[in-house]
Amino acid sequence: QVQLVESGGGLVQAGGSLRLSCAASGRTFSSYGMGWFRQAPGNEREFVAAISSGSSTYYADFVKGRFTISRDNAKNTVYLQMNSLKSEDTAVYYCAARTTSPFGSNWSRDYRVWGQGTQVTVSS
User: What b/e readout covers 99-111, taking b as 16+ CB neighbours within 10 angstroms?
Assistant: First the structure.
């Protein structure tokens, strides 16, 4: 069973940057679609970005041009580079693995394995 561990969250001022990392265990990471989601207090979990095993990427409209998802299959790690952060980006960010498909998805139910989440707080 693959396990995911996120890191890189923290407190940053508006306009700043953070890079989140998600380290996966297991030998089949390269065959999974991977995604990042986030959940702010009182809100439902929402899609942020996804990447296929072949590194095709997909983004929510509200992060296009600001966030970049990437993966390093040699390191079993997926990244989320977040630039030009806004206060509304404050949330717990979750990494997820789509273990049944090499394609990314914006639907949370497509992902079977989730990390524990990492808090991102953007101060205005």
Answer: beeebbbeebebb
